[in-house]
Amino acid sequence: MYRYDEFDAAFVRDRVSRFRDQVERRISGALTEDEFKPLRLQNGLYLQLHAYMLRVAIPYGTLSGAQMRQLAMIAERWDKGYGHFTTRQNIQFNWPKLKDTPDILDALAAVGMHAIQTSGNCIRNVTADHFAGAAADEIEDPRPTAELLRQWSTDHPEFAFLPRKFKIAVTGSPNDRAVTKAHDIGLRMVRNGAGEPGYEVIVGGGLGRTPMVGSVIREFLPKEHLLPYVEAILRVYNLSGRRDNKYKARIKILVHEDGLDEVRARVEAEFDRQMAEACGPRVQADPAETARIAAYFTPPEFDDEGDIAAYHAARDADPEFRRWTETNLAEHRQPGYGIVTISLKKIGKAPGDATADQMRAMADIAERFGHDELRISHEQNVVLPHVRLSSLTDIYALLKANDLHEANVGLISDIIACPGMDYCALATARSIPIAQDIARHFADPTYAQTIGEMKIKISGCINACGHHHVGHIGILGLDRAGVENYQITLGGDHTETLAIGERAGPGFAAEEVVAAIDRLIEAYLLHRENPEETFLLAYRRLGLAPFKAALYPDTVQNAA
Amino acid sequence: MSGKPPARKKQFVPKIVSANDLFEGKVVYLKDDGAWTHTLRQAAIASNADEAEALLALSEQPGQVVGPYLLDIQLRADGCPAPVHFRERFRELGPSNRPDLGRQADRKIHLCSDTSNQAV
Question: Which letter does DSSP use for residue A400 in this model?
C-alpha cells in the first residue's frame, strides 16, 4: 500500500494549517461565507440539511487497518459514531462542527489521509477496481496508475478551476468493476499485439442529468504516455468545455456537441505538441518514480494455504456460513486465497453506513487475517482483498459478532443508495428509506438467491450519486408538486457492457415503490428462460414491454 | 373593450426564515427579535410580503448563520407554523431513517412536523 513520503506529509499538514487559519477567520467574521465557501469545499467540507458534512478521500478505495481505525476514532470523537461510505469510494461524516474540522483533518493527516479535492471543479479522488491486486482476471494492478494520477493531479495549478468536476477511474481487469465507461476519463488496462500492457482510454462518460456512455478515444496508449495524454485531454477540456451553463459543462457534453473525432483530433494534436516540446515529453513520469510507486503495490507475501479441508467441512456443516461464502466471496488469483466483500447492507440499515465499532472490527480483521488491507467499493461495501480460505471461519465469526455478516452481495438487497434528502441539500427526495423498504421486503435469503444477481441503484436527485442510470433497476427520487415521486429505469448496466437504463413510465409514490419492484421481480421470474438468465439478460432478450405491463397493470388493462 | 380579465392576485402564503447555524450547521429559525431558535414554533411569521421582506433583512447575520431564506408555512390551529414542503419537514426533524439523530431526538424541543411518517 502507498505510504506518504516526506513531501506528501508536509503538503497535507500545510493544507490543514492553512484551513485552520481560514476556519478561525470565518468564525471571527474576517471572512464572509462567500469568501469561505470555496475554501471549505476545497477541503471537503459541505453544509448539508442538518449539519456540516466532511467528505474524506480514500484514494482508489484502499486503506489500512490503522486508517480505518482512525476513521472510527473520528466518528466517535467528532461525529455521531458512524460514517457513510460512498459510491466514490470515499467516506462522509455527517455531523462535524465547523471548529472541529481542522482537528479532524489533522487526525486524518496523521494516518496519511485528507479531504483535498473531494469537492470543487477539479480532478476528484481517482477511483479504481476494488479487487485490484487480487482479482483472478487482472492484467495488471490499476493502483500504481491511480496513485500516479493522484500525485500528478493534486493541487495541479492548471486544473484547479475546470469548467466542472472531473472524475477518473482505472481498472486492470477486462471485467470492469470500476464503472470506467461512466467517468470523464476511464482507463482500462489492455495489452497490445506485442503483449505489452497499456491503456484503452475512454472519454466522455458520465451519469447525472445527461447520462452518457464513454467512448474510446485511444485504443492503446503505452503506459509511459499516460500523463501527457491525460494532460492533453484535460487541456482540451479546460479550454473548450462550456462554462456558460453548469449543466452542460462536463466533458461528456463537449464530446457530444463537438463529436468524438473532433475532440480526438484536438487531443492528439496537443499530445503530439507536448511530446515534441523541449526535446521530449515534458510531463512524462520519471521511470524511477513510477517504479517507486509500483513497489508500494507489490502483492503481499502470501502464506501457505492452511487447513483448506477444515474450511470445506465448515461449509458443509453450517448452511449460513456456506451461503455467505457463496455470495460474499470472490476468486483470488492466489490458490488458497479469496476476496471477501463485507456487506454494509444489513437488511433494514442505511446502505454504506458503518458504526465506529464496526470500523474497528474490520480494521482488526484486516490486520489479523487480511495483510492489513481494506478496500471501499463503489457499491458501498468493504472488501478484504487477501484472505486465506482457511481463515474464513474465524473471519465470519468476527463479522457475525459485529453484525457485519449479511450474505447478500450482488443480490437484491445489496442496494446502492445516495444519502438523499435525509442528509443532502441537493436531494429532491429520500433514497435511504426506499432502499430499506426494498431490502426488508426481499429479506428472505432463499428468495433473494432465487432471484439471483440484481443491481438496484437509487438516487435522490438527478445528479445520480446513487448510479440509478446503470442499475438493472434504477430508482430516481424526484419532487413532483411537493410530493416525493420515484421514477423507475430498467436495463442499466455498470460493467464493461455499460448501458443506460430505459425509463419505464410515470413515477410512483414512495409507498408504492416496493409493490412496483415486487411486480417487476414476479414478471422476471415468470418470463426468464432458466435460473441462469439474470434479470438483466432477460430484460435484454424481452425488452421493456413485459416489465412495463407488470409495472402498470391498470394502464395495460385499460388500453386492452 | 375586450381583453384578458385582470389576473387574480395570488394569495400570500405565510412564511418564516430559516438558515443553518454557522458553527454547527444546525437548522435554525428567526425569531421576532432577530435572535435564532432551534424551535420552529418560536419562529417569527410573516403574514404579507412586506413582513417577509423585513424578516429577511433582519436575518442577514453572516457572523451567526449561513444562507437564510424564506419558506412557506401553514399556520396550524395550535399555533405551530408547519412547513408546507416535505424538505422542510425533514430539516425540522432530522434524518427520517435515524430517529435517534437530529432535532427529533431532542425531547426538549416541541416539534411542529408530524413524526408518524418517519421511517424506523
Answer: H
